[in-house]
Specification:
Length: 267
């Protein structure tokens, strides 16, 4: 199911990503418009089924790159801008934790509960899987991480590969860590987003939407996942300009620090 969705959205993600790059790095307004128009026409000649386009723009970019790499980049930009060593250390710790999740092998066999299994699959009324399991399978299959497993088909193969193999276990706990850290990290940025100073009207509207989302999940998990997927997908696309601005900001701060150190050494 993920590949079907990605096939129809790969061009949109590619278009949004490259457009954000143009907006961030091209200064001349008219040149920006020309390049975006050229990009639009070039989409007719792009093969969205290409395996490299699919795995990067359809799988990695809107998921793991967004929630892990771009989060780390945003953290690093903030740390460099404020000259915060604790902030820089937190980025190092983030990558250290991610590495540990892959390098430290589980010491025991974990039993997956029915709730975890059903939530990770996210079946809808038609029996299609709408959960994170699609991300796991796309990554494991693309890198042939389960090629040594017994020949199986259907749900039996997917469940065994994701929940009962070493590669599946290591990937699943990294996905869980990356998404959980991404969500909690935004709530820690009170000085940037100013959650504590938000207008009460927006606060009440946000709480109303949150309760509506929870209610949708309670009504039907797969339906809730589909509805929230739309908002999540829009969020990923709209954040591309911020991602590129973070890269630009890191470059500027690094140059400023280098120039300051060079000036100090000269003096």
């Amino acid at each position: 199911m993920l590949k079907t969705l990605a096939s129809s959205s790969n061009k949109l993600i590619l278009l949004s990503f490259v457009s954000a790059c143009i907006i961030a790095f091209v200064k001349d307004y008219y040149l920006k418009v020309i390049l975006v128009i050229v990009l639009l026409f070039s989409m007719f000649f792009v093969n969205s089924q290409n395996s490299y386009i699919y795995i990067f723009f359809g799988v990695f970019l809107p998921t793991l790159i967004h929630v892990f790499l771009f989060t780390a980049i945003f953290m690093l930009f903030g740390a460099l801008k404020s000259r915060s060593w604790p902030g820089i250390i937190s980025v190092v710790v983030l990558f250290g934790c991610a590495a540990a999740l892959f390098l430290i092998n589980p010491s025991q066999t974990y039993q997956i509960s029915d709730y975890v299994r059903e939530s990770w699959f996210g079946f809808d009324a038609k029996g299609d899987a709408w959960g994170f399991v699609n991300l796991n399978i796309a990554v494991l299959d693309y890198f042939e991480m389960g090629s040594d497993q017994p020949a199986q088909e259907g749900l039996a193969r997917i469940e065994n590969l994701v929940f009962h193999t070493k590669a599946g276990f290591l990937l699943t706990r990294f996905v869980a860590f990356a998404y959980t850290y991404h969500y909690l990290n935004w709530f820690s940025k009170t000085s940037v987003i100013k959650w504590h100073k938000v207008d009460k009207r927006y606060l009440y509207a946000t709480l109303l939407l949150w309760f509506a989302a929870i209610g949708t999940y309670l009504y039907d998990y797969a339906t809730g996942l589909k509805v929230l997927f739309l908002l999540s997908f829009m969020h990923v696309l709209l954040e591309f300009p911020l991602n590129f601005q973070s890269f630009v900001g890191i470059g500027k701060e690094a140059r400023n620090m280098f120039a300051r150190n060079k000036t100090g050494a000269t003096n």
